[in-house]
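Why do we care about 3D structure at all? Because function follows from shape, and shape follows, mostly, from sequence. That is the central idea of this module. The next example makes it concrete: a single protein chain, its amino acid sequence, and then its structure expressed as tokens.
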Amino acid sequence: MSDPIPQLVKPASATPPEILEPISFAVRLVTLGVVIVPLLGLAGAGYLLWGWGFSWVALGLFAGMYLLTAVGITVGFHRLFTHRSFETNVVVEFILAALGSMAVQAPLFKWVAIHRRHHQMSDTPDDPHSPHQHAHSVLGVLRGAWHAHLGWFFQPDPLNWGRYIPDLRKRRAMRVASGLFPVWVGLGLGLPALLGGLLMGSWMGALFGVLWGGLARIFLVHHVTWSINSVCHLWGKRPYPTGHDQSRNNFIFGVLALGEGWHNNHHAFPTSARHGLRWWQIDLSYMLIRTLALFGLAWKVKVPAPHVLASGSEHAEESSGTLAAL
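And the structure:
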């Protein structure tokens, strides 16, 4: 984990002035509704099905698998592998890579490469999932939100995305972890099915396990993660100036995405292991990293020094390797 993150130069032409135009409150409200309503629908489905197709066992499998796979994305794919905000041993790395893969968003290598490209080209035409490359009418912003949230998946991948991850590609353990993506996906569906069958003592329990702990959980993890790309570049507060990108802090997704919704903080201090920089900004992923450090399973945890935090610098300072410095 000692190799530096590749530094790529942003093209001078990739900062069109129109991305800084303000977006109306009405448009932001519509964007919020488009994301929140499906989540409410999922909660409503669980309520209506309670006692028939939903139960405490199903809820436990749904919540447990959500937390495990979301941690795989937030702590593993994002803060560890993409930004190297802390270091850990290869066993913890492998576990986090497996859990992140169970979220079924992409193999480790591709996920990291795309996200590094996002930071290098944030909210420019070369950003893989910026919502700001359309007209600033209501329809244009909705088109942009759709692209950032899901539409970008249907666009061709850059042929040279591998150049963003030379540090990971040279490590055999990471090549194996990324290459086993289909296995991790199968395990992410099979494990809740197995647990559901054992806990409920029936094949119907296994079916409920794969439906709620597998498919419904994947739905929620997907849309919460994608909302960081869409909602958190459209709706929220920007306490830190971050140049041309429009990253924003959003309380709702700060909670649902285990701290990832403090997105403006993250873009201001991209290598920081801590995204919730204020006492009231809940960041469960950072709490887990601190817990790992307390047990000697994480070190060189990077957080912004107080004077850097106050100045809004884009470079988080690395602690001495102990949590006493945090």
